[in-house]
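Review form for a predicted model. The reviewer records the input and the model, then writes brief findings.
Reviewer: anonymous (R2)
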Amino acid sequence: MPAPTLAELAKMFDHSLLQPQLTDAELDRGLAVAAEYNVASVCIKPYAVKRAAKLLAGTTVEASTVIGFPHGGNLTAVKVLESELALADGATELDMVVNIGKVLSGEWNYVADDIRAVVEVAHRAVAKVKVIFENAFLKEEHKRALCRICGEVRADWVKTSTGYAESGATIEDLKLMRECSPAWVQVKAAGGVRTYEKLLEVRAIGVSRVGATATKVILDEAKSKLGS
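Model under review:
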């Protein structure tokens, strides 16, 4: 794999602005960081999507938000409504949480229908969906089954975690998710990518996006290492 440019690395980032304590002023500052560094997207709390889309207009940074976050236990109809509202407000990428209890119960038809419903709403609006597994709670068999389902319903990414469980992205999980997902499904790492070296490590596995709060720190380190 050729050495990446700083611009290529920046486009791996979904700058995460999901912490419950963030004020509106802090969200605005986070949006400014995302625009300055020209990242892939800002993943922002749902109520702020409309403002994010407005402030990011004229940039190449996408407005993204979360669906069924952080526990995934919402009714499918509620996830669909959340998705429709977010899309109407200008979101172009949705990060949805699977129903973790249904995954652990082996209710695979329910899980597939839940994911499919959000994917179909998003794709009709020419938006994309990242499906959050929350791997800290799952066994390998669950992760493999979820990768298969996400391929079948044409999700755009599989994603390791919300960032709010006891652990986030691991190298082992990222390798498994890349191995088990079809080529048209990308892999997103969330939680645990905090340095330039770790970013390069997950990129080498085949990860195309990372969710991070330390975006500025990592990209500043990348800039110093790449000399550009």
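Findings: The first helix runs from residue 6 to 10.
Further findings: The mean pLDDT is 96.
Recommendation: see findings above.
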